[in-house]
TrEMBL record:
The keyword Transferase does not apply. It comes from Streptomyces indicus. InterPro entries: Rossmann-like_a/b/a_fold, TilS/TtcA_N, tRNA_Ile_lys_synt, tRNA_Ile_lys_synt_N, tRNA_Ile_lys_synt_subst-bd. This is tRNA(Ile)-lysidine synthase. Ligates lysine onto the cytidine present at position 34 of the AUA codon-specific tRNA(Ile) that contains the anticodon CAU, in an ATP-dependent manner. Cytidine is converted to lysidine, thus changing the amino acid specificity of the tRNA from methionine to isoleucine. The keyword tRNA processing applies. Residues 34-212 form the tRNA(Ile)-lysidine/2-thiocytidine synthase N-terminal domain. Coiled coil: none annotated. One of its GO terms (biological process) is tRNA modification. GO terms for molecular function: ATP binding; tRNA(Ile)-lysidine synthase activity. Keywords: ATP-binding, Cytoplasm, Ligase, Nucleotide-binding, tRNA processing. One of its GO terms (cellular component) is cytoplasm.
Length: 333
């Protein structure tokens, strides 16, 4: 008799990603090291168990890291427990990283930034070929809805990529696996899981969406909303990738000999392509990508499409955009 269907599903998802990592990674005497980011929750514990099972069969070393955000009493004890659980699965090395969460961008964004900084540091120091993240299809659906609510455009609707980060460091094997399957896999394997109370705290936007927004949508529209949103993410990503490629090719053609953007040539481009060029120019000038919203780019775009002699546009990161003599100048203010 084979494994439970839920266990088989998570193992297959991880196996596929590990094969991709082997293809992308140069041969090493001891085999590549793959880490799992594990909070102790059902999704990441299911991922850790699947990695521990599949990696040795492919000659891959499997380790784990848990991040202690320090946001709840006893978080250090929780991190220590996760280390014990990862070790019991056979993962090595395993580490705990304590971080300080700032306030920039709100509590959820600040925690995410601190977490990824810790994962980046550990991956680089340990020489890991990849870090596996336990985001599920449900997480993807929530991300798409949050992007829709922000009105951030098609790139935001594309949700989380299966591969992201420097040199494709982060891999998300479970984006086609629902949250219930991951939890079921833990249950049938008798894996203890920790339910983060923040995930049920209505003070957090994603928590309200998870426990109120999505259930309301499913009640109104019927089952299948999560699957449809995840499918929307993939379709949006394909479109966004194509438009990004078009913008990258068009960028050199709308600049003068000094590298400044020419307004007349920008005006001739389709809006979706033009705004991508403007966004990239603002980021290159020093505007933080995470703080640069659609409304900022729309204001800059009006310097091209609705020129009435208006003054400079202030962007995040002390970046200024202004029209001068038929050229668009985007620079540090």
């Amino acid at each position: 008799m084979g494994p439970h269907p839920a266990v088989a599903a998570i193992r297959l998802a991880v196996r596929r990603v590990l094969h991709d990592i082997l293809t992308d990674t140069p041969d090493t005497p001891d085999g590549p090291l793959v880490l799992v980011a594990c909070s102790g929750g059902a999704d990441s514990m299911a991922l850790a168990s699947a990695l521990a099972f599949e990696a040795p069969k492919l000659g891959i070393r499997a380790g784990g890291i848990t991040v202690d955000h320090g946001l709840q009493p006893g978080s250090d004890l929780r991190a220590a427990e996760v280390l014990v659980r990862m070790t019991a699965l056979g993962l090595a090395p395993v580490e705990s990283a304590a971080v300080t969460v700032g306030r920039e961008g709100g509590p959820e964004a600040a925690a995410r930034d601190a977490r990824y900084a810790a994962l980046d540091e550990a991956a680089q120091r340990l020489g890991a070929a990849a870090v596996l993240l336990g985001h599920t299809r449900d997480d993807q659906a929530e991300t798409v809805l949050l992007g829709l609510a922000r009105g951030s455009g098609i790139r935001s609707l594309s949700g989380m990529a299966e591969t992201s980060g420097v040199a494709g460091r982060y891999r998300r094997p479970f984006l086609q696996v629902d949250r219930q399957t991951a939890r079921k896999a833990c249950m049938v394997q008798s894996l203890p899981v920790w339910d983060d109370p923040h995930n049920a705290d209505p003070a957090y936007t994603r928590s309200r969406l998870r426990h109120e927004g999505l259930p309301a949508l499913e009640k109104a529209l019927g089952k299948g909303v999560v699957e449809a949103l995840a499918r929307t993410a993939q379709l949006s990503r394909d479109d966004a990738d194509a438009l990004d490629s078009w913008a990258a090719q068009a960028d050199p053609t709308v600049r003068d000999d000094t590298g400044l953007l020419e307004c007349a040539k920008l005006y001739a481009l389709p809006p979706a392509v033009r705004r991508r060029i403007l966004r990239r120019a603002a980021i290159e000038a020093g505007a933080p990508a995470g703080s640069l919203f659609a409304r900022h780019i729309e204001e800059v775009d009006r310097l091209i499409t609705g020129w009435r002699g208006q003054g400079a546009i202030n962007l995040p990161g002390r970046v200024v955009a202004q029209r001068q003599g038929g050229r668009l100048v985007i620079r540090q203010g």
